[in-house]
Amino acid sequence: MDAIEVIVAKRDGGELTAAQIDWVIDAYTRGEVADEQMAALNMAILLNGMNRREIAGWTQAMIRSGERMDWSALDRPTADKHSTGGVGDKITLPLAPLVAACGAYVPQLSGRGLGHTGGTLDKLESIPGWRASLSNEEMLGVLRAAGAVICAAGSGLAPADKKLYALRDVTGTVESIPLIASSIMSKKIAEGTGSLVLDVKVGSGAFMKTPERARELAETMVALGTDAGVRTVALLTAMDRPLGRAVGNALEVQESVEVLAGGGPSDVVELTVRLAAEMLEAAGITGKDPAEALRDGSAMDAWRRMITAQGGDPDAALPRAADTMVVEAPASGVLARLDAYAVGLAAWRLGAGRARKEDPVSFGAGITLHAKPGDAVKEGEPLLTLHADEPARFGRALEALAGGYEVGPTAQEHLPLVIDRVTA
Ligand code: URA
């Protein structure tokens, strides 16, 4: 087989055979198919799509490129959650220990932020001593000690996806539903979880800007998981505005701890409890109330065990940025709109995110929201606090925020927090 034949077949709108898919993924992983050839094939897929059989074959070939984890030694069901990424989306932090406190094991492989969306590992690394890289044996040890583990995927898991994702990132081929679905699901299936809840974000701060595109992605991923024997369900949730009141690494850890202590912003609590209920149902665990596990402190206990087992100090002070700047409400009225993308971009420019994979992040940088859309505000009172290590960053962050919020007589319509639920 040769790469040009496969590229031309997809360029001309044809279906790839199972043999072509297996060969091209394997040959690319081994370096026999060149980056420029794979980039051309990715673009042909982005433009012409893949059918369900092709997507399933593509996903399975990426899984076979590496190891498959196995949790059969554990005596309780496993459950995991994946979010397609958003602004202020720290839900994994309270959710993993919460679901563990309710009786499931949560082996969660997470990623780092790129662009305006944050990454779970960057957030947790703001806790002094906490380690993201664990061996498979260490993962098992943390799971046994705490019921939940959140760590980086090792280099052996879906290496084809690692190479492909890096290539897509620099060739304008990220936004293809078959490629996003197969990328996410190859890692989640290889991770070996028995059940999976997908949080597919919708709105300006998400990959998928409309409910229609998000539903298509959700249906594709649910079908892939189900076909691979993983009980999979997806929620479509709002990302037209930021989630919670904190955006930025240490700021989001702080907010997550507030949720685990029984407080925290209502949207973060509502989504955490809803996703926990979905995970428990998918894992076949009945008779547990996640809201009660937040109230009675058992979720907090699991959090403390999880952080400690990964070398972190749950009582240590979190990093704070050296400087702050307050953005005041320009008028009195109601915060009519606060755009998720504008806030995410501003937080990124303040230093919370990275421009290239190798860049460090500032743990203390980010944005605190003093009002959420629909809240009453008074002219001159704080609307947002910007946090940065270098004051020179404030100007570009303010530029990102310009036009990103509006104070008016009434709130504008926004998406419901949970828009839809997709099952097989
Ligand atoms: N996250 C992934 O892991 N892959 C994608 O393609 C997009 C988001």
Alpha-carbon distance between the termini? Answer: 35 Å
Average of per-residue pLDDT values: 96
Q: Per CATH, what is the topology of the largest domain?
A: Pyrimidine Nucleoside Phosphorylase, Chain A, domain 2
What count of structural domains?
A: 3
What Rg, in angstroms, do the CA atoms define?
Answer: 21 Å
List each distinct ligand once. uracil
Q: Tally of extended strands?
A: 13
Derived structural class: alpha/beta
Query: What's the CATH class label of the largest domain?
Result: Alpha Beta
Question: SSE layout and pairings?
Answer:
Blueprint: H1 3-11, H2 18-30, H3 35-48, H4 52-64, E1 79-83, H5 92-101, E2 106-110, H6 120-124, H7 136-146, E3 148-152, H8 159-169, H9 177-190, E4 195-202, H10 211-227, E5 231-238, E6 246-247, H11 249-260, H12 266-282, H13 290-295, H14 298-309, E7 323-328, E8 333-338, H15 340-352, E9 366-369, E10 376-377, E11 382-388, H16 394-401, E12 405-408, E13 418-422
Parallel strand pairs: 1-4, 2-3, 4-5
Antiparallel strand pairs: 5-13, 6-9, 7-11, 8-10, 8-12, 9-11
Bound molecules: uracil.
Feature tags:
single chain; 424 residues; alpha/beta; Transferase, Pyrimidine Nucleoside Phosphorylase, Chain A, domain 3; Pyrimidine Nucleoside Phosphorylase, Chain A, domain 2; Aldehyde Oxidoreductase, domain 3; 3 domains; 4-stranded mixed sheet; 4-stranded antiparallel sheet; 16 helices; 13 strands; 44% helix; globular; binds uracil
